[in-house]
Amino acid sequence: MSALLSVENLSVSYRIPGGRLRALRDVTLSVRRGEVLGIVGESGCGKSTLAAAMIGLLPQGATVEGGAIRLEGEDMRHLSPDRQRGIRGRSVAMVFQDPMTAFNPVLTIGRQVADFTGAHGQRLPQAEIAAMLERVGIPDPARCLGRYPHELSGGMRQRVAIAAALLMRPDVLIADEPTTALDVTMEAQIIHLLRALRADFDGAIVIVTHHLGVIAELCDRVAVMYAGEVVEEAAVDDLFHDPRHPYSRALLACDPAVVIPGTGHLPTIGGRVPDLSVLPAGCAFAARCPLADALCRTSPPRVAGQGRSVLCHRAATQVAP
Amino acid sequence: MTAVLDLRALSVDLPLGGFLTRARLPILCDVSLSVGRGESVALVGESGSGKTTLARAVMGLTPISGGSVFFEGQRVDGDLARLRRNAAMMFQDATASLSPRLTVGYLVTEPFRIHGLPLPDPAATARDLLARVGLPPAIARRYPHELSGGQARRVGVARALALDPRLVVADEPTAGLDVSVQAEVLNLMHDLRAGMGLAYLVITHNLALVRHVADRVVVLYLGRVVEEGPTARIFAAPAHPYTASLIAAEPKPDPRRRRADLAIRGEVPSVLRRPAGCEFHTRCPLVRDLCRSTPPDLVPVGDGRQARCHFADQRQDKQGERHAVDHR
């Protein structure tokens, strides 16, 4: 099946005093209908820039240096701002980490969601909004419509944000750290909700998170990002049971949730993410990589592997642990 | 041996807003717990369970309305100086807890100035403290905004360690950190405990963190202890359905172990409308009639544990069964 949303060789940089910060380098990714794609990595690796680029909401100061973002084959960058705005929300909708900041504190939920649907086409009646609120698991949806954002818990606000996004019947739903601000019990409920929605939502879902547990519970395919590049892309089971890139391995190994307790010490990844304004000549991970050799330090790796991609000189030669 | 920290039937209530009312809202009810020398105790629960209120009450930042706090065998009674000199707090938002206008070197030695203690060579002291948390001496000249999240957290730890405390109260010490940095902070906490015999009271909702740092766990629900005992035993066989639900709710970092259903439904009720009977009955998958009418007591359930559930004993026989319910 062909890609619904695809990013091809996308490079994005931010202007900073005295140079440019290369936030995304040559990123290629796609998501198909009915699929849940996870994008995982640590802070500063470019996850959120990629999510923003996918919905055409790159911040001021960001420059697309090359590549394309296609929705059903059409390059969104070549559309007029009006057309882009139409796509935003209606074809591609986004749910943010902290739903509190996404709402206006002085308007009721019902009013805001209605305004939101009005801004993206047709203003929907309250009954239809209430039905969607019920669908995302809000108890007593009629009462919820009359409440203000601060009267709802974090989990309930996130449900309202998801409901508002879904009312637009988008083709692609992008969720940027949708459970990060929530308790473990609310997180489980939102994961459960996204899974249930996926069954009757004929679009694609993109989850951006640093939480490996969320990826494992929810996604079909995963892209691991490091220093602005996709360093590994794999089916979720392959990534968790046979990670090929040394960074993916290190990331999985140091997750406090994975390690068997009793040892006292967790493995760590020594060193730091490189400065994105002065990138090293070779592989961006070489300085922290236990397998790096002279080639890794001098020449950037190319994507390797069949059926899954690994951006590593050593991926083909190393043996699985 | 006397415990470093001993809370006896601690209660905290807050005044309800309103001009003429004297009504007060109970936040913490009758919480007893102790932290032994060199011991690490985790306090877990969802938002609104009273975890942070408890930490604040221990440090004297929130007035207590009942019960008492004992520090190294002595009752803390208005005399907060001794407590604060020997117990330090690690805050959740490390960057925000550091004054933006002071250098790291000044910040880590500030506890000496606050307590009026001699500080003959501030630069050397700062260097030593930074070295203890694995930071290079050059960091002393930086300002908080120049630090990464992990570095700010380390500076927070260095500052907490300045006066050689016996107890560190850590409120969500790894919240907001990347996994590799979380691992570094956990390793640091582990080493400090081994090297200095520090005791920890760790407040968190992150169960992975609890497994790594805590000897014992105290589970709070609506300001009441619902289960308490050794970490390994609680994770292996939780006695309270709430504890079981929390453990089951944790996302598993393995796609082959995806949960088929949902461990817990609904949200923590408001403290303004505490349920009658067992306060967990509105969300409990195993609720029975008795639970709706009669509040259970916190009672021993074996293995050095206590649980506040009418049916905890019966459940110990059927371990391994998931207390899961379908979510509507």
Radius of gyration of chain B: 21 Å
Indicate the structural class of chain A: alpha/beta
The overall pLDDT of chain B, averaged over residues, is: 86
Number of domains of chain A: 2
Name of the CATH homologous superfamily of the largest domain in chain A: P-loop containing nucleotide triphosphate hydrolases
Proportion of beta-strand residues of chain A = 15-25%
Based on the model shown, name its key terms.
heterodimer; A: 321 residues; alpha/beta; Rossmann fold; eight-stranded mixed beta sheet; four-stranded antiparallel beta sheet; globular; B: 328 residues; 2 domains; 11 helices; 22% strand; disordered C terminus
Question: What does this protein look like?
Answer:
The complex is a heterodimer of chains A (321) and B (328). Chain A has 321 residues and is an alpha/beta fold. Chain A folds into 2 domains: 3-91 and 173-279, Rossmann fold (3-Layer(aba) Sandwich); 100-169, no CATH class. Chain A is 33% helix and 24% strand. In chain A, the strands form 2 sheets. Chain A has an 8-stranded mixed beta sheet, sandwiched between helices. In chain A, helix 5 (126-135) packs across helix 7 and helix 7 (154-167) runs parallel beside helix 8. Chain A starts with a strand and ends in a 10-residue tail after the last strand. The mean pLDDT of chain A is 87. Chain B is α/β, with parallel strands linked by helices. In chain B, strand 11 (299-302) and strand 12 (305-307) form a beta hairpin. Chain B is globular, with a radius of gyration of 21 Å. The N and C termini of chain B lie far apart (51 Å). An 8-stranded mixed beta sheet of chain B has the order 6-7-8-3-9-10-12-11, with helices on both faces. In chain B, strands 2-1-4-5 form a 4-stranded antiparallel beta sheet, with helices on one face. Mean pLDDT of chain B is 86; it is low at 319-328. The longest helix of chain B has 18 residues, at 179-196. Chain B has 2 domains: 5-214, P-loop containing nucleotide triphosphate hydrolases (Rossmann fold, 3-Layer(aba) Sandwich); 221-318, no CATH class. Chain B contains 11 helices and 12 strands. The interface between A and B is large, with 45 and 46 residues. Chain B: It is found in: Cell inner membrane. Chain B: InterPro entries: AAA+_ATPase, ABC_transp_ATP-bind, ABC_transporter-like_ATP-bd, ABC_transporter-like_CS, Oligopep_ABC_C, P-loop_NTPase. Chain B: Residues 7-247 form the ABC transporter domain. Chain B: Belongs to the ABC transporter superfamily. Chain B: Pfam families: ABC_tran (PF00005), oligo_HPY (PF08352).
